[in-house]
Amino acid sequence: MNAINFCVIKVGSNVLTDKDGNPDIKRMDHLVAEITEYRKKGIKVILVSSGAVAFGRKETILPEKLNPVLKKQIWASTGQIDLINTYKKLFAKSTLQVAQILVTKEDFRDRKHFLNMKNCVLGLLAQGIIPIINENDTVAITELMFTDNDELASLSAAMVDADTLILLTNVDGIYTGPPDHPGSELIREVGHGTEKLSSYISATKSSFGRGGMLTKLNMSKKSADLGIQVFIANGKSENILGKILSKDTNFTYFEPKKAKQSTKKWLAHGDQYFKGEVIINQGAKTALYDHKIISLLPIGVTSVYGEFKKGDILRISDEEGNRLGLGRAEYPSKTALERIGLKNQKPIIHYDYLYLFHHD
User: Are the C-beta atoms of 355 and 264 separated by less than 8 Å?
Assistant: First the structure.
């Protein structure tokens, strides 16, 4: 396990709520105190916090028959005020200032928006301000919603080049079966060669959150692949962040691979944002997976799908339909179609903006 210098801490709804779904202010206070200790040790912290809907549900009573999406939007928009104000008051005890950042997937899709957001977050940290990030549920629609805040936290960690991602939930980590079953054992470490773990995990979602352990597993593996170490731990446990730092507690740890370049970290999460797709032949596939640094040239492309412009994210697949990776288009779809299979052309995807799945 590596030292923690710069971390994104995600706190789930089940950590911040009690059994009735009401906000657990005492737990929030404990976590704020622990984050403050991280800051005293010189660790940079970004907080990704759920809980807005729980705060809104407590304060705003809505008709049962009201559209569920509208209900969530109302609770999220009213509850976000209370959530951030509660954090503001709790951090103020240690004279720490917080900032609210509300985002949607659209903010991560466009490279320019992505960099603007990154600069804002890093600027806040440079001024000693703790960024608190949450999804803008008020404007997010189903197609553009994050799977849950685990995905948002993973994206945020990649965006700012954090070395650590801590996902706090209401269990100690990933188990070999349902956590409440006597025979289930905690999986303490997930290495590069660890067998597939998804078969152990129930698809059941948490009581008050939108996601479940399967999302945590997928996001943790993706983050580790990008060079970010990940801890999944129990946010209800006392002094959990301090114990993670001293490695004196139960958690599931994901061993990181070699850190990827910043642009590749952005691309790694683009599988839901791509605007077009290129199909490549076996020769191009072999070349891309060679150890030499190489861009994707039109001569290796057999088909181009979708309408896209320069700078949009493209998905790369082989002729058998296997998804190979993602890249940034160097020119628009019209030009790409004209250059399919041609020699002596500029790359359709430059190596600097190319991310391959399952490739060191």
Answer: yes
Q: Is the pTM of this model over 0.90?
A: no
82 is in an annotated binding site: no
Cβ-based neighbours of 262, under 8 Å, separated by 6 or more: 161
CATH H-level, domain 6-260: superfamily: Acetylglutamate kinase-like (3.40.1160.10)
pLDDT averages per 10-residue partition of the chain, 360 residues: 94 89 92 96 95 86 86 87 95 96 81 88 96 78 64 92 95 82 85 67 46 77 91 94 92 89 80 87 90 87 93 92 92 94 93 80
Cβ atoms 114, 159 nearer than 8 A: yes
Scanning the chain, the segments in alpha helix (DSSP H) are 13-16, 25-40, 52-59, 68-92, 106-109, 111-126, 149-160, 213-225, 240-246, 262-268, 282-288, 333-338
d(CA 74, CA 69): 9
**Domain residue limits, the chain:** 6-260, 274-356
- Give me the phi and psi of 233, to 5 degrees please: -145, 170
**What is the total residue count of the chain?**
360
Q: Mapping DSSP to helix (H, G, I), strand (E, B) and coil, where does residue 115 land?
A: helix
The two tokens of residue 349 are 């995807």
Beta carbons of 241 and 208 less than 8 angstroms apart: no
Tokens of residue 335, six digits: 């030009």
Query: Known binder of ligand: residue 50?
Result: yes
Cβ-Cβ contacts under 8 Å for 128 (sequence gap 6 or more): 96, 97
274-356 classified as CATH 3.30.450.40: no
Question: What 3-state class would DSSP assign to 24?
Answer: coil
Is 223 annotated in a binding site? The answer is no
